[in-house]
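Handoff note, outgoing to incoming analyst
You'll be picking up this chain. Sequence as last confirmed:
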Amino acid sequence: MAAEPALTKLEFEVLSSTDNACVAIDADLLKELNEIDEKKLARLVRIMELWCGGQQLTAEQYNGNEGRAKRGDLNVMLQAFKTHKVRLFGIVMRIDRKRTFLIVDLDPAKKQNKADPKILKRAYGRALDLTEKAGELK
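Most recent structure output, in case you need it:
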């Protein structure tokens, strides 16, 4: 699957894509993603495919509000794909005319139902950094 030009510049790798939507991950997170249990990873990939296909996801599959990150004029909503104590945090933006979910962080072994505050804080920072970087490409 050929990467979208803007995603290549942002150093993101496509995980799932249709004509209208795409899920991509920060290339630096690929190793960590591939260390997730095989069954859980397969389930996450299926959830991404459903999201790209425009399917309504359940609360067990997707959280559309992991909180907002703010810095200056930037204000981004963190969201997450999830399954069995694993969360993939990201933001949604339009890239190359596609609705794109950009995974900026992950929690491979969540211990409780709420997100780990340290990982969440790191994800907020990464989401803001990515939003700034994406704005510079326009």
